[in-house]
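Repro case for the chain-ordering regression, as requested:
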Amino acid sequence: MLKKAHPAMFGIVFFLMFAMLGQLLAQQTLEDVKQARGLDDNDVLAAVKTFMPRGGRDEYFAFVGTGNSGTMIVYGIPSMRIYKYVGVFSPEPWQGYGYDDESMLMLKKGSLDDRIYNYGDMRYPALSETNGEYNGKYLFYSDGANSRIAMLGLDDFETKQVLPHPLFVNCFPGVAVTENTEYVIQSSQYPAPWENKTADPEKEFDSKFKSGVTFWKFLDPKEATRSGHHIGRMIKEESFTLELPPFTLDYFDTGREGSKNFVVGLASKDGKNFIYVIDYSKIQNKVTSRFNEANIVSTKAAVDAKGLAMIELPEAARKVKVTPDGKYFITASDNAMVFDFDKVASALSNGTFSGKTAGDIPLIDAASVMKGKVNIGKDVMDLAFDYRDGVVYASAFSDKKIVRWNYNDMKTEGEVSLTFKPGQLMTPQGMSAAPHSNYLVAVDKEGLYDHYPNVGPVRPSFQHLIDISSDNMRDIYTMSLPQANIYGSVSVLRTTIKPIIRYALGTNTRTGEISDFKTVAGQEKVERQGNRVHVFGTLIRSHITPEIVEVNEGDVVTFHLTNLERAEDETHGFTINTYGKHGSFEPGKTASLTFVADRAGAFPYYCTEFCSALHLEMEGILLVKPKNWKGKVEKEVALTKEELAKYKQDYEKKVKVIKETGDVINGVVKFLKENDYAKYPYVKALVEDAFDQLEKGKFAKENYEKYAKEGKWKDAFLWAEQYWQYQVKAADVGLRAKTLLEEKLQGGK
Amino acid sequence: MLKKAHPAMFGIVFFLMFAMLGQLLAQQTLEDVKQARGLDDNDVLAAVKTFMPRGGRDEYFAFVGTGNSGTMIVYGIPSMRIYKYVGVFSPEPWQGYGYDDESMLMLKKGSLDDRIYNYGDMRYPALSETNGEYNGKYLFYSDGANSRIAMLGLDDFETKQVLPHPLFVNCFPGVAVTENTEYVIQSSQYPAPWENKTADPEKEFDSKFKSGVTFWKFLDPKEATRSGHHIGRMIKEESFTLELPPFTLDYFDTGREGSKNFVVGLASKDGKNFIYVIDYSKIQNKVTSRFNEANIVSTKAAVDAKGLAMIELPEAARKVKVTPDGKYFITASDNAMVFDFDKVASALSNGTFSGKTAGDIPLIDAASVMKGKVNIGKDVMDLAFDYRDGVVYASAFSDKKIVRWNYNDMKTEGEVSLTFKPGQLMTPQGMSAAPHSNYLVAVDKEGLYDHYPNVGPVRPSFQHLIDISSDNMRDIYTMSLPQANIYGSVSVLRTTIKPIIRYALGTNTRTGEISDFKTVAGQEKVERQGNRVHVFGTLIRSHITPEIVEVNEGDVVTFHLTNLERAEDETHGFTINTYGKHGSFEPGKTASLTFVADRAGAFPYYCTEFCSALHLEMEGILLVKPKNWKGKVEKEVALTKEELAKYKQDYEKKVKVIKETGDVINGVVKFLKENDYAKYPYVKALVEDAFDQLEKGKFAKENYEKYAKEGKWKDAFLWAEQYWQYQVKAADVGLRAKTLLEEKLQGGK
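-- result from build under test --
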């Protein structure tokens, strides 16, 4: 123990210790730091290419599924900092997803039989598109484990819809959308019986096990009112499923432009590998049966309509992806095969087939529709496209390299050798008609501890950022993704997404509609009908109203809470101690928490998000009274003369403080007006928020003045206190606006 | 749409587009990148101080609670990369925490009344200590929302124990440990009734609402066998709670060396602020009553034993922290107050009091025990210590600055102005007897969108890494922490923690004991007693055994699965489609999944973690047979002559492949031996794994040779296939070992 050593000894040891610990950083020149940390010139370049200075913004948002946790991760490129985990197929406590009634109802609608699923298997997401380009509005995910599909809104990065698949017990954990997001496509993965649910996997596989591809009809906001929704929705009634023989299905992609009606995907059966080709325009009106309210198109009907064929592959592939221009589709296989969409379409419409496979599905001869093949390497895992005409990247897992090649001239253009085995690849915007050409993200499929810190038997996933902007491609950053088993991801230019900062007051964020339970300041109340209790409450710095709620043991209680804040980043959490209820309330949101008050006692409830310096004051008590409890004396006790005098004194003090705070506000307003604050949108928004707060406080001001006139000093003091709360909030927001404006005027970023 | 433009136009737009997108990165000199990305020299220095080159290791692990999600985050310093989210108070799907029977049982023990809690409120963790220094073994958390305490083992970063508080309905969400982790200390936060559970918060507050401080007895491994455990445990029977009048309690800390028997914490009541001082050595044997199996020490008993007093503070404080040498405790308040522990201890033992407060608790006069105070700034939020004698940092929220000062000479030494409002502070090892002096982490309590990318109404938390290694303190990295509401964190030198890579085969990871359900290769079986079915299965690349499980509708089924892998990072996931069951199986782990087979059908089960190139083959089918189902024909059909001949052919082919694979293995073994592989621990571990795999395959080899002799070609082929699987795994691991050894020989890091 150092601290028990002789003082002089201590000094020496301390010096050595500090010298050792401090040396890495005490160096203040670039050369010193390079030497101390063992960095070379390439490390320095990599560092400055990914470092995000204070206030800097990433160029891209990237979205990646977690594999089996049912959650989506949002991160930035090139900083590779993680911004959000969003609950999709699983409840997520931090945002109260699956905890409040509204999101719980949404998740329950995601189950055919009210089974509660608390995990998922989500791998390949798709972003909504307009004319093949990302429009930044929605994102879709398939749950391979529990056969669900989900839609997220990117205006607030929240899950808006989860639907159970009416037929499949197993889905491929990926989706794709058509060129204008008319359909969201989901397929089965492992074959399983549908209607005749039990079948012998050994004897009845071919006769009773099935596969399928589902086209979920998607209506965007302007159309969605057809079904009464204000935000985009998948509509089961207008969706359909193509039934297939028991192929194991894998990755698929959609066409663009000339190939926009096509879906191509991987299929395998009895050791043979295929690409299925579907022309959905030919089969969408060929529904042959219905089961579980699902529209089914039989294999035969699709074949008869010239909407379905297969291509047998000479070797297995792990992916098939459509080129940005929609002219080709390419397999991720050791010899990457480039297929010509025009030729495939002709063969299908002309009936130029070479034979048949299971289910009498016609086969198109691979050689007849193939532009050519290029040898990439061993165990090719994935492909990604570049903006440059014909440029494509392929990852060769066992060769530890990524190859850049061109599908126009079928030649390799370069490669980057890696220190890891690369898996899935992603280029920003790479799955749209307009990929970008600066970065490539590659998943490390074998992250040995020799390269990473040891954090126990289960480790995070790792992926690498590769600079592809020049001929000298280089691995520049290793990113750690906790709670993720990375398969695929998508990325979009950050500025394409326009997230909101707050909701319209009283919004049910799952439907986008104003909640029936919206409650505004001053209208908080508790309503009872028999043993059913509704609490209409509000949250605003620094009060939860009401502050005491009394119910009887056995009551069914709902807290309907509205966050009244208009300021930025003013989320309040809400929890009732040991009652297992929790919610997250973003500015403007209304949500409800229902529970049975099955345990008597006094249970504090409080805000679980740091919301201001007065955060700890956001507290109240739920009193659950056992039968025949006599503790509570209901009637108000009259104040003594001394008490009244004390309240008067407190009131006068508070009015003085209100005056002073008002002066501060006026000073800020003067500064803002003199400096044309309205020219700066962010500043303007803050100022509007500030006035909003003041406006909301008006009723409190009227009340305290009224009660003061009547000599009711307790009420006068309490309302003055209330008004001051609004005033403080207004001042707080106003001062933020002033600071920001000052920064703008000084030319800050 | 670019792609519909005239080709020439396209070329121009493409050029502009590419020029814009690529310019940031195409630059290959430091100066070019600096200019393109708008970085200055300080940014470059910051970048190289935090950049982690491929294979580099962070100096520290940091642990931070998420606030209300019930999950712990592990990240590295200085890279600020997040390595892990660990489920503590909430189920966590990615690791199957709260999903398998073992962890579900552990979480259920964390509830007094079988209520399932799926969130928590965890803020200030504590690491286990030996002589006041971190020993890297355990970590503790308090759940403020649902009154629980948890212990994590740092050998595998898993939660090992969750206990409900027997008295409090509300806890302060922080813990502290005594100098040798004899006790883990937890307190209440908001007062609430205990025994007499319902009480009127307005009329009966002082008479029936209570607070308390609990000392949870902790037994470390060598002692833990006293209660039959193999890993550390908190023992309720030997724990005790000091009952206090209804003070609102807040942050507390424990003494060291001379002050090792003391706990000091913040308390407030009726607008007055106090520090409570407890000498636990005086009260641990003064139990006055028991309730709910909890030992209670009354306030009076503690006062009589000279084990409890309070100090009234002249101003409110947000923290109280004990100095590394244990001589002082200091308040985080606008005027930081330094109290002398010796003087406080003397006052307490001599009864030198200035009065009394609620519950007749004696008051020690603040001035008489205060060394002095130093003005820091406005709204001081937290303190952190440096290794240098007397050095302490304080964050002034409203002043946007962190002040370095010295509690020896009570002088400020410097400050760093920030662009954000700093909250909690953390120095690596800062809460132990041996803080380090290179980094300071400060939480950004007000992350406006003007400084960060907008990701919707709910944003992540942000914290900053500040270089404190020189007089020129500087904010060098902004870290984003998703799903976190950051309050406090602790950090330890990475090398202090020695995580394991795999478990002993068949380990129940929650108890550390070998599971009764451990299953080894070849002993997989299905046992039935009435409608209770136990499946004893194994997981190993690339098979789930058994591959078909048949049960009857209504059976209660348990899958007991053991991951047989010995290789590094070979976790297998397991899920049964749409049956809502999911688990994560690290190498060596045995866990159980129990469910009612309440829906007939055929349900694929599969591995949800990418485990090898043959990952997709880890699949099987659960057949749930409805009553009277006749589909399945049980008896084996004899093979035809042709089939037999085909199997013989397949067998011979496989034996040839086995020979070739064997040659590869022998070549690798030769290389390894010639190059003294055993000198390199990591390489050695891999080689042992490889031999382990081969050894395991022996029975398969014996079987295929036996069946071949008997002319049973189907069985011979299947066993040969099985043996080859083991061989491939051995070769795979062996090749990894060879690669690693080559790197070592070439002097790689």
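Ordering looks correct now. Residues 641-745 of chain A form one domain.
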